[in-house]
Design brief:
The protein is mainly α. The chain has helices spanning 10-21, 31-47, 50-55, 62-72, 77-97. The radius of gyration is 20 Å and the shape is flat. The protein starts with 9 loop residues before the first helix and ends in a 13-residue tail after the last helix.
């Protein structure tokens, strides 16, 4: 359905969550590294899937890729990124303008 969001169910995510969590035991030494490795492997595999490459071919420019993601998500991606960026910008501005309120923040060069 070009131009329409793709319906996704909870069941669609179960195999992926199992793949990401495979071999990870929270509280066991190396769990964080194992989880990070699993996430990286999953993402590498995901972006090389035939259905992903058919929808988002490697020939797309970065702008075309974001536009395609946004269109597929029902025009939600860019709004989310804009809101996230605005919050991050405000937070950084506060740290820069009022460093005494953030004693654990690193010193910024002047």
């Amino acid at each position: 359905m070009p131009g329409k969001p793709v319906p996704v169910s909870f069941q669609d995510f179960l195999p992926e969550t199992q793949q990401i969590g495979r071999g990870v035991v929270i509280g066991q030494a190396g769990a964080e590294g194992k989880l990070e490795g699993n996430k990286q492997t999953f993402l590498n595999d995901f972006v090389n899937r035939a259905d992903f490459l058919a929808r988002y071919p490697r020939t797309l420019s970065p702008a075309q890729f974001v536009d395609s993601l946004n269109a597929n998500a029902g025009d939600k991606v860019l709004g989310y990124l804009a809101r996230k960026s605005a919050r991050l910008t405000k937070s950084l501005r506060n740290v820069c303008l009022f460093p005494s309120n953030f004693p654990s923040a690193p010193s910024l060069p002047r």
